[in-house]
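Incident log entry.

Two folding requests arrived from the same account within the same minute. Monitoring flagged them as a possible duplicate submission, but the sequences differ. Recording both here for audit purposes.

Request one:
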Amino acid sequence: MNSPHTSSADTGTRRLPQATGIDSSRPLRFTVDGQSYSGFAGDTIASALIASGRIDCGASTYLGRSRGILSAGIEESNALVRVQPRVAGDVSESMLPATRVPITEGLEADYLSGLGILDPGQDELVYEHKHIHVDVLIVGAGPAGLAAAREAGKSGARTLLLDDRSAPGGSLLSSPGRSVEGGLDESIDDVSATEWIETTVKGFAEAEEVTYRPNTTVFGSYDSNFFVALEDRTRELVETEGTGSGASTDSADGDRDNTASRAGTRQRVWHIRAKQVVLATGAHERPIVFADNDRPGIMLASAVRTYLNRFGVAAGQRIAIAATNDSAYELLADLHAAGIDVPAIIDSRTTASAMAERVVDTTGTRLILGSTVTGTAGQGPAGRISRVTVAALDEDAVAAGHGEDIDVDLLAVAGGFSPVIHLHGQRRGPIVWRSDIAAFVPRTPVRDQFTVGAINGDYSLEAALKDGAEAGNAAANRTGFAAALTVPKAAAMTYAPARPLWLVTSAEDDHTALTTHFIDFQRDQSVADVQRAMNAGMRSVEHVKRYTSISTGGDQGKTSAVNAIGAIASILGETDLGSVGHTTFRAPFAPVPFAALAGRRKGELFDPARITAIHPWHVAHGAEFEDVGGWKRPWYYPRPGEDMEAAVLREGKAVRESVGFQDASTLGKIEIRGTDAGEFLGQIYTNGFKKLKVGKGRYGLMCKPDGMIFDDGVTLRVAEDRYYMTTTTGGAATVLEWLEEWHQTEWPSLDVVFTSVTEQWSTVAVAGPRSRDVIAKIAPNLDVSNEAFEFMGFRETTLANGIPARICRISFSGELAFEVNVENYYGLAVWEAVAEAGAEFDITPYGTEVMHVLRAEKGFIIVGQDTDGTVTPQDAGMEWIVSKLKDFIGKRSYSRIDTAREDRKHLVGVLPVDGTTRLAEGAQLITAGTPVTPEAGPVPMIGHVTSSYMSPSLDRPIGLAFVENGRNRTGEIIQTPVAGGLVDVEITSPVFYDPEGNRRDG
């Protein structure tokens, strides 16, 4: 159940004039827990509620304790809401941090007690995926990230800047944007931070190669600088629907999406490949662990400063500050300037730092050194904090006695900062403990990455700008883009060392009952839970984490991880947290909706179709399609009045008698590069490729370790260290995975890499007696004679229309044939050029059905149709492709007794004796005269039909089959059941057409 709030909406809103992040001319009404509140455009639910006097939120998950808003950003663990549908087709969303949800007119939300409520309704909004390659990716739009993006962008490098906040600026959003007496000088290049941010971001909008995306959380970092991010466009969607406009509000940032396609998009998952990366992810402030540190009204000092300056909201009117470091004094200066009463600032350090002395002298605030807050009291229905107990600390950081009580209505805690090293850690980047700032930081960046600003523990504005600018410039340089370096200037600032407090206890405490010293607010986990885990024998941070569930919720360790490690260290009597260790970072950094991960994979897009560049032509010419490996492949092209059989016979005769062309772009294509590429292919294929000459291709067969056929295709040798492999359409992804598996597990020392290029090439197959004439017309600079252009050779040339092409002499039909390969962009143009060149020969497009028929006439197998995982090359009559001189995957299996026996099922041809019956694919074959009755059952089967077609060349039905000892039974009559009885079938050679192979060369 939700806690009663401290005041109703009738309290009204009190705003301070320094707000930099709201538009006070645009008031908005919204509802939380059935109560109506008001705010302004730019407010979050949290900031608007605080302005209305409400700081409490839903009760804690397991203990039902009253809780309040803790932070101002993504690290919020208490104030979680369920938001009702906001636009047509929407569903409610749960477990959203109130600190991140912008208010919109009429928004309805309810606080949750740590558990979400799944909406069973139909979500009709759009969730999409975007794949992008960039030169430089910058994560975080704080001062370091902005400086990095500016320097990288001006070089011309393609730069992507992503930030999880709704506005750029990072920590600068918490500053007043003006000079505050006693405060920091946060001007940049002699202008206010606000003005510098605006100028910098305006430059992004004007730069052609810079893309800036707010509200975009990078949640996953993977090998080779592959990142995944979630962009939330809900606010834009709500505001767009409210205005009735379908226009996109994107800036000119290099994202050239069609506007109409983006209307209605709620969230987008970005898949990013970056050459160089700059991590400017900042740091999150930590709470301090003391008794009853979870009351409403206990808030991170950085959050109090954010609400004060960005939203113009004072979170309290009598605010005490508990500090372990200098950052608290930035807040003190701002509170004093705003006229907020600060009865005391309690600093754990025994000596005032230079910043502390300056700010305290300016503000006249009482400074209590060498002390901390040891406990709190609350009042009212929500138990909002009303008093803090302060006590001095001894040299072991143990509080001496009860101390004094101070009345407050808010306690701002500055327990130190935890650099956001999650993305660095996800890549297994090395991490080290820095005792001077009491934080884990990257020891060294991951390859092709930079870490800048607060992630390194460098909290000064001067350092952030310098490191960011230099990293952006260096990252661009590494990608081949150079520009003069300009480092933004800011005032120098030195922060004194911190005195962290991991566990506040006093000599009077019962150390075995620290049940209200909370570490993870979302999980209701306290120091007592850590003690319980350690009493059970746990010592590893990872073990304690799992025993207690600390850091496993939406928090993901942002505010709780380091405090948990500190508690373990305190219990062990260890002062060096680095020796205790840290948790392992895994994606996602922040929660990601399943709807976003699924993207548009619903409705008609649940199984998205892949189409070639030539697809529009096929549609325009009436093609019927079949799905192959996710692709829409033309099946046949019926003319008016034709059924499938008539169309297939016509297309087949055209190829045999004149010329036909087929879109073969869907074949899998893999580039294989490296000095050991030939040796590796020799292990993968049953035949050799190491001695294949450059400019030649070779048909290859792959087998599994059991010797059974796995995939096949033609591989070209493009250069000494580069091959171009083709695979079956449906097997492309599996083959690529197969190559990677064997390279990584068996032959990692071989110099070879693999790249899928299926979508990068369009392929037009031209087959038939007149194919040479067609190729000669589209490639006039190429000698296509049989003597100059041999079978299984290929040539690089330029077509008559100026398009560069790779033309191969490959045939899957037995006819003279060529394949024209061009960049995918040119696919349709080349297809149309082939159609025009072949018009005088009545060139005919043919689909997959005719391709199957023509290859069956020649006895060529199709892997997956004529094979089923139990067929060896020898079974298929392909022993000619199995090397006896080298080793390869599956070779030793051929010496097994079962694999070597001569009476296995063999590939044969089958012809219905009556010359008219077309056999069913999958039909069982039996020995002639075998009784087929229930009394005689079970009926012994000797084989089955794998392929069956009406042959346009033989003008009769033909088929391929696997039959026991089939090659030794040629001429035998066997039978197959059909409706109404049995049909006699003759076993023949699988090669029905041109057995001598004369037609291949024209």
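Request two (distinct sequence, not a duplicate):
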Amino acid sequence: MDIVLITTVIASLFLVIGAAEPLAARLRLPYSVILAAIGILIGSGATFFLRTELTDALNPISEAILGLPIRSNVFLYVFLPTLLFQATLGMNLRRMLDDWVPILVLAVVAVVVATFSIGYALASVSTLPLAVCLLIGAIVSTTDPSAVVSIFRSISAPRRLARIIEGESLLNDAAAIALFGLFMGFVMLGVPDPNLGDALARFPLLIAGGALTGWLAARLAVWIMALFARHELAQISISVALPYLAYIGAEQSIGASGVIAVVVAGLTLNLTGPGRLPPVAWANLREVWDVLAHWAGALIFILAALLIPRLLEEVRIEDFLLIGVVVLAAIAARVVILFGLLPLLALLRVSPPVERPYRVAILWGGLRGAVTLALALAVTESFRVPVEVKRVVGIVATGFTLFTLIVQGTTLRTVIGWLGLDRLSPIDHALSRQVVAVALQTVREDVARTTENYELTHDIVRSEAKRFGERLEDAVKTAEDSAEILDRDRVTLGLIALAGHERDTILSRMREQTISSRMSEQVLSDADRLIEGARSGGRSGYQRATRRSVSYGRTFRAAVVLNNRFGLSATLVRMTADRFELLLSQRLVLRDLGIFIDGRIRRIHGRRVADLLHELLARRTEAVETALEGLRLQYPGYAEELERRFIRRTALRLEEREYTAMREDGLIGAEVFTALMQDLAARRAAAEYRPRLDIALQRVELVRQFPLFADLDERALKRLGRVLQTRYINAGEIMVRRDSAVRSVFFIASGAVELESAGQTWRLGRGEMFGQLTILMQKPRRVEVRAIAPSTLLMLDEDRFRRLLKRSIALQEAVRSSAQKRGIEPEGLVSSAQEAA
């Protein structure tokens, strides 16, 4: 075939891609629906002109279109890795973790349920072998997110809904294609009724092998990209090679799932890339992948749609019955998951609840697309599959895809509107009216100054001022005449605005590189969580999100267990350093929020709301300072290194600003400016490297700060530092329950706890201990100990405590003092402890 003709056809397809998006926006239809319609029209037109006797002038173009090398391998090896990889790079993984249960249920459980539901439903109404029916079920179980997400973004639908659908669509591709590979093997071998136990037993091996391949490939790629820190184009080129090598390596080398390998490689790069690559390089890398994925997604849809007329050429009347069965079984399976399993998991507190309108939107938004057509094409191309099976698989998969695109795709926007997901809530409506009134007042002041500066014609100024004043008056009247906003709602609106400004401040700090690239994604994720917490739970939701941002998570505790029990400290070292830097970044951002409260929120919501937000901000700042002080007490030298690093980054930012100003003022030329910026970039790359934290060395320093151990010599301090275990606790967590057996003494390194016994309470802070009286009295005491701030405790077992008590006069005095405060005779306690020791 003429290469010029093929190039012309492909270039023309890019013109179609460019015109499809504005056409979809004008027709208010999903972008993928327009692409599919255009592809069908092109394919049908090419077939018509090639077979008609009306004219032969268009035969070369028709032959070029129908002769394009459209094979399933092109979709699976060229386009699919691009789409999956870009989707993982664009995901906010930390926010996805908030909804990991519903995402996994929809992506894995729903795919398995749909595959078997469709398979057994088809087997009951047709003469097809069960293996073929299950193969069809796997083919049509994968959903296409592009149509749904594009609509959600165009109408500013809830972010959480878009996240759930994106996560589901990304992961269910992997699950469906893995199942497709299993059942395709049975069909090619001619096994009519596969052993499902053996099939499902191979499933974890496919996933594990793919995951390992993807992780190793991504780690190697990140290591190489970090070596090329000054060569941005080289880094982007390596990222382009990564998904394809991971896919081919998993599929061809070890027989695992290539889709899983690409997904894991993308997730690994998403998590590690921001911390290893310069911020500008990472941003440009993601922009390149956005463009590649846009082209790949559009081309795969158009090229797959070109095949639809060919796949439907041999359709029969009875095939419509099979398509109807697939439609009903697929919807029924999705209903069972969305309205049966998810509410049950929420009731059992295994999963966060998913609101009913969200579930309806997810149900109707389960569109199928190019991946389904590509898998069907793979079946029709196989010479080891019977001809009749090829025909049925192609027709049923294509018919079901067309149903979802034509019926669900064209009505999806209407369904979303019916559910109210495209409308502002009453609170947001009230906020918009308040904001317009305040904004117009500010604009009026600025316009007045502008007219004075430019000495405009008085009559023109007066007429325009009159028009603007009428609009301002209407806006103020609308805001005042609207239904009164409750104080509670005003606080919620103020918190949403405050969290939004915090996010904007973080983005500004990231551009200035004051916040390191390693921490940028996590700080942004915390800000998003604050916004959604305020939206869903108001003041209490915002406070829960703030507590979570400074608390010790399960992953951190797991790292502590690995360090304490197995001596594996690498994870704890990294997470402790991350926590240190995160808290420093939060403190930097929080200091700018007070001005926003006084300058903006006070004008919109009044003094009472502003004062309350100041109070909440003060509490949050105090919590961050407390957590940071605890870390600083544990690792004083490391805190100093991080602060020095922050000062160096700030100085580099100011230095860059000065060079830019000199270049704009003409004080230095382009050559000098380029040389200065290259030198600056090298020093900035060096400043990105974070100093290493040595937790073993720092613990001795921490123990030395306790007044309780002031009389111990250096050797005893080092020995004590080795045997003490660290425990991190969150505010509200109970360490000791009433009537429980206490086997350790706790020393408070940072934070504070509250003891409650017989209606009395005591509060203990840094440098104090608890648990010693229960041990020395040798009987349970009705005492409950609860943390009232994120705290770090050092634990010493009973035997070592008794031996230490015998040697330390300072510790004996501390025991006497604590016993006297609680009305217990101290002398007997200490003497009996010394005798027991």
